[in-house]
Structures are given as structure tokens and as C-alpha cells.
């Protein structure tokens, strides 16, 4: 509102984000920034991948043999991210690890965050009850995508009480119980039957259900997690200006392809 923006018309595209950042910058307050990209994060799921997907790219080829995040879409996505820092639109605090609850958005010095999910909204209400906020749609560029993490109940292979453990999992997975669990923790059950009417008394969280159709999950690949340690440092190098986006992603792709070659 201070920047002359309408809280009821939140950014929906990359261009909207740029316009919002420009409006916030025009306030002339160096302590207030428009956007936050968590550059110190060790995961790509909630940082680089959403922009990669939105630009029409994917991290790995369909056959699982080759890294594809260094495609034209990947370079476009990383360039967008780099520009956020280059233009001073993203808080410099995100270049260092941030304690939970101490991020610029929660502290009120950042206009828009892409790091808060449904469960995060529940935590935000508890930790910052006086904060005024609104939930923006999943961002869209060429495509509309956001990350959605999966949680599951499982029985350990080494369990000494597998039958009892399986009975507990079966109980927890029943639609009525999965629904109660989801409403308590701000998550959406995988079972469609358990999602029916969920958050009926919470219009805000119920509205987030519309995000699910635009959600991608973990990469189904043997090295889906391991490759992140090879890519994140290269992205960080691009953000601080040590490398151009294409160079950073190409070098990361070489390292990831070497990893894939191990079989």
C-alpha cells in the first residue's frame, strides 16, 4: 500500500514482480526491498526450480541421463534471479543463512516472499499475529508452477513391530484422519477424499488448494538430491557476479552429468 500497490492484485507474473520491485524501490527506503530469493539455501526445490519450470525448463531429461537445467529456459530463469540482486531488489541478508523467523519478510522489510507455503501461513499466524499479509497466486512466466513437497508415513525395514506399525499407518492414512492431520498442520492430504471440505472454516488456506494443480514435486531420480550440492554453489557464484548465468549453469551441468555417469 505504501508503494501505491493494490494488496488485492498481487504479482502473478515475472513482469508483475519486476513492476512491484520498482514501485517498492521508488519509496527510497534502503531498508525495504521487494523480493526475496534465499540464495543461501541448500535446496533447489523452493529456490531455482520454480523459476526454471516457469520458464518452461526442467532439471533433468526424461530418460534421466542428462542435466537440462542449463537450457535456454534455465539461463533465463537464473538471469531473472541474478537481476533481483543486481538491482538491489532482493535483501542481501539472503546471501547468508537466516534463522527461522528472522527472514526479512517476517521482519517486515520485504514486500513479497516465495518461501512461505500453507504450513508456513499457519506458523506466520502464530509467530507474527499482528502482521498484515495476503497470499499471491503461483507465479507464471511461460508456464505456471510452484514446488510442493510430499510427506508420507512409512514403516522402517528394520522395524521389530511391522504389523503394529502398519496398523498405525493405515489408521493415519484414513481420509478422516488424514484430513484432521492436514488441518492441524496446514498441509493437503494426497488422498482426494481427504481433501474434500478441508479447511472449510479457513477460507485463506482453502484457497491455496487451487495451487495444487500447478505444483511439481521432488525429482524422481537417484541423484535428485545429490546434484543440488553441485548446482547451488554455481548459482551463488552467478548471483554475486563471479560468473555469468550461462557459464554457471553449464559448469554445473558438466559436474551433474559426471555424477549421472556413475550409474
Automatic annotation (TrEMBL):
Pfam families in UniProt: SBP_bac_1 (PF01547)
GO MF annotation terms: maltose binding
Protein name: ABC transporter, substrate-binding protein (Cluster 1, maltose/g3p/polyamine/iron)
The entry's keywords: Signal, Transport
Organism encoding this protein: uncultured Chloroflexia bacterium
Family note: Belongs to the bacterial solute-binding protein 1 family.
Cited Gene3D superfamilies: Periplasmic binding protein-like II
Keyword Signal: yes
GO biological process, one term: maltodextrin transmembrane transport
Keyword Endoplasmic reticulum: no
Cellular component annotations (GO), alphabetically ordered: ATP-binding cassette (ABC) transporter complex, substrate-binding subunit-containing
Amino acid at each position: 500500500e505504501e508503494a501505491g500497490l493494490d494488496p488485492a492484485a498481487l504479482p502473478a507474473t515475472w513482469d508483475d514482480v519486476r513492476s512491484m520491485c520498482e514501485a517498492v524501490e521508488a519509496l527510497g527506503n534502503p531498508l525495504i526491498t521487494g523480493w526475496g530469493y534465499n540464495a543461501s539455501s541448500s535446496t533447489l526445490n523452493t529456490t531455482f526450480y520454480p523459476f526454471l519450470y516457469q520458464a518452461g525448463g526442467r532439471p533433468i531429461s526424461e530418460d534421466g541421463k542428462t542435466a537440462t537445467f542449463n537450457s535456454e529456459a534455465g539461463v533465463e530463469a537464473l538471469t531473472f534471479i541474478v537481476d533481483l540482486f543486481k538491482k538491489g531488489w532482493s535483501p542481501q541478508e539472503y546471501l547468508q543463512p537466516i534463522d527461522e523467523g528472522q527472514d526479512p519478510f517476517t521482519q517486515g522489510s520485504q514486500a513479497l516472499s516465495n518461501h512461505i507455503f500453507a504450513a508456513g501461513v499457519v506458523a506466520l499466524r502464530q509467530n507474527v499475529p499482528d502482521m498484515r499479509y495476503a497470499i499471491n497466486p503461483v507465479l507464471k512466466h511461460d508456464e505456471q508452477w510452484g514446488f510442493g513437497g510430499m510427506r508420507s508415513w512409512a514403516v522402517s525395514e528394520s522395524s521389530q513391530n511391522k504389523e503394529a506399525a502398519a496398523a498405525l499407518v493405515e489408521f493415519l492414512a484414513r481420509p478422516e484422519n488424514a484430513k484432521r492431520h492436514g488441518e492441524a498442520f496446514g498441509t493437503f492430504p494426497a488422498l482426494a477424499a481427504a481433501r474434500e471440505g478441508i479447511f472449510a472454516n479457513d477460507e485463506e488456506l482453502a484457497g491455496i488448494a487451487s495451487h495444487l494443480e500447478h505444483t511439481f514435486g521432488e525429482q524422481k531420480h537417484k541423484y535428485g538430491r545429490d546434484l543440488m550440492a553441485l548446482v547451488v554453489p554455481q548459482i551463488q557464484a552467478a548471483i554475486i557476479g563471479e560468473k555469468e548465468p550461462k557459464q554457471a549453469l553449464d559448469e554445473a551441468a558438466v559436474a551433474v552429468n559426471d555424477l549421472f555417469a556413475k550409474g
